[in-house]
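JOB MANIFEST
job_type = single_chain_structure
chain_count = 1
residues = 296
[input]
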Amino acid sequence: MRVRNIDTDLLRTFVTLVDLGGFTRAGEALGRSQPAISLQMKRLEELVAVPLLRRDAREVGLTPEGEALMVYARRILCLNDEALAAMGPVRGGQGVRLGIPNDFAALLLPTVLGRFAGDTGGVKLLVECELSHILLQRLEDGMLDVVVAMHRDPVAPPAAMLRAWTERLVWVGSGASAIASQSPIPLVAYPEGCAYRRAMLRALDLAGRPWQIVFESPGFGAIQAAIQAGLGVTVMAERTVPPGLRPMLPACGLPGLADMTVGLHFDPDNISAAGRRLVTALVDHASVELSTPPAA
């Protein structure tokens, strides 16, 4: 009997493609051409014998089978990276492990990692998209080299925070403002522990507004699809709101939101030269792009 195995490289391309929302962005982040990304997705779909992507949408979307595989893909990649980390730290330019929340990956990776890949002579980039508190713990455990993370309060966790900036949070919907007047307010949310989720629930509780989480997913693509389908509203950093969604105006009646601190973290005592180059690229990009308020 022939045994089928899924190449982790195919799974990493799959996860990156969905997290960043497009073939071009995924190619820039992984240092590959757009045709190469398309070929890898074709190979993965042929291997699992089901369609994984909805190709009739302007944005990359997942089929039900794609949603199911995404859960396994993240677990497999997490175990893969943990196994490598257990064998010892990445050394000598073999790779750099970056942890970043899904939406900030779409904001930062296309520019930063495309440039980084071109400047480091083929150093492998391992990108993990997860909730901030999980990424910070993995940095603390030595499983990541550099982390971009959100914080409810502007305090530095155990790992060094080289730079921090403030992001304005906004309510996000599909354009139907009537949803904000419902009771309870239907919410689309990341799992427990997400900074956006905490900010959203805290604002509603303080305002005395009843709420109900009607859709929950760890995937940025799934969150986006649920909002576009009109299932509910959510909270995002204004700068990361993707095409097809829009910030909801204060006139909609939803409570105000506190700003969020975003920090760039790494362990200065255990980072490779390639890791420092990635930190420099992120800081340079943040200095130019993130110091400018988002367009109105």
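[summary]
The domain at 169-258 is CATH 3.40.190.10 (D-Maltodextrin-Binding Protein; domain 2).
Confidence is low (pLDDT under 50) at residues 291-296.
exit_status = 0
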